[in-house]
Amino acid sequence: MLQVNQAESIILNLVQPLDSERDVETIDLLTASGRILANPVTSKLDFPHWDNSAMDGYAVKFADVKDCNPENPISLEIVEEIPAGYQPQKQIESGQTARIFTGACMPQGADTVVMQEVTKREDDRVVILETPQPQEFVRYRGSFYQAGTPVLNPGIYLGAPEIAVLAALQCPQINVYRRPKVGIISTGNELVTPEQPLQVGQLVDSNQYALAVTLEEMGAEVIRFGILPDEREILQQTIAEAIVNTDFLLSTGGVSVGDYDYIEEILTALGAEIHIHFVAVKPGKPLTVAQFSDAQCLYFGLPGNPVSALVSFWRFVQPALKKLAGVNEAEWGPEFLMARSLQDLHSNGKRETYLWGKLNLGNDGYEFKLAGGSHSSGNLINLAGTTGLAVVPINETLIPAGELVQVLKISFTS
Ligand code: AMP
Ligand code: MG
Questions:
Q1: CB 251 within 8 A of CB 313
Q2: Ligand 1 atom nearest to CA at 303
Q3: Which of 170, 186, 162, 343 is nearest to 263 (CA)?
Q4: Which protein residue's CA is at the shortest distance from atom 17 of ligand 1?
Q5: Is 159 a domain residue?
Q6: Do 322 and 395 belong to one domain?
Q7: Cβ(214) to ligand 1 under 6 A?
């Protein structure tokens, strides 16, 4: 059986990222949150756009004030007042200054700002009481960013900081990757929607909800194919239609070894190449990964158990989706942290075991608090509140309380 890291690399090798020319759309900055930049951005503007003051004070020639102190103050003539947004009209000559405010343009001839706290105003003159540093409190044009150089590189998620930068540099429209199209199918004769009355033996299709929302949070366009019965023809027909219009197709259930588990048979009949059948992971041993080369669709047959489905999604599908979406390799994840376990963590040692719980920052670094209740893959009730999955490596049966454990951090984008 494949080990987790072998499965991970097989999957990542199967993923072809979206194309940075063909799979791109131009959007407004205000709609760009959570999208992935597809092309480098350069601006025609320097930043700061003009030499400007970082303080409320007086714009001076440094040479005029280089020797002053409270015993030997220097008096300068104020020739102009420059508030923010005003274009200075006068050139500062020796012995002169301009009253200036934070963010206002530096006048010609001045090279330094003296903050007002070390000055004394006397009508149309000001007395400078302390020598500043040369060029102090001047933000020079282009000192933070020079026009024409790359400001942001492709493959990054756009959030408030990046969008603020692009706005400041007057790049109101940008090229981002289109949203990856991900189809989801729930399989099982026993499944109903949350609205339907339950008959004996039925179960609510929670997987569709879990996958739809996490995919949406990741920026995918989700195409929901609903609940399908365990019937070969219907499954095969839906899958055949779905692969044509999706980058990834995810199904849950029907990938185990039971009599009603048809997914692999159908994938083979439709011409897919199956690369993964099982992975030595708990929860989530059955995992089908198949490629439809003609349709350019990667198929993930996830286990039906709700916890197995989500853990398999976080561990295997999420990094693949980030690669598909055009995200930089360094961000594909998953992100692992070392945390001190607050409880004993048990495994049977046969498979790499993921135990769900909460990751908190304690006084001494991260701590992992195991979710209380059953860790059966059929129990999703205690999954609520999960922010981390502690990993008990294969061949290990116990990580005692107080020891460090590797924890997969659950996050959506970065
Ligand atoms: P399967 O892999 O189809 O044998 O399903 C394994 C277990 O997961 C069974 O108990 C199913 O009833 C349950 N299950 C399958 N699909 C879903 C789903 N979409 N939502 C919740 N539970 C499911
Ligand atoms: Mg089933």
A1: no
A2: 2
A3: 186
A4: 304
A5: yes
A6: no
A7: no
Residue 405: CB atoms within 10 A of its CB come to 21
- Answer whether 400's CB lies under 8 Å from 327's CB: no
pTM of the complete model beyond 0.90: yes
* Best mutation site among 185, 187, 191 for ligand 1 pocket (most ligand atoms within 8 Å of CB): 191
Q: According to the model, what pLDDT value does residue 412 have?
A: 65
Looking at ligand 1, which atom is closest to the CA of residue 256? 2
Q: What residue numbers bound the domain in which 254 lies? A: 4-18+178-328
The amino acid at residue 244 is V
Q: How far is the CA of 297 from the centre of ligand 1 (A)?
A: 24
Task: Look up the CATH number of the domain holding residue 354.
Answer: 2.40.340.10
CB 308 within 8 A of CB 354: no
- Ligand 2 centre to CA of 224 (Å) is 18
Give the CATH number of the domain where residue 132 resides: 2.170.190.11
Cβ of 256 less than 6 Å from ligand 1 = yes
CA–CA separation, 388 and 224 (whole Å): 27
Tokens at 285, concatenated: 């041993």
30 and 56 belong to one structural domain = no
Ligand located closest to 283 CA: 1
The three-class DSSP label of residue 313 is helix
Domain identity same for 298 and 379 = no
Give the tens place of pLDDT for each residue, 261-309: 899 999 999 999 999 999 999 998 999 999 998 889 999 999 999 999 9
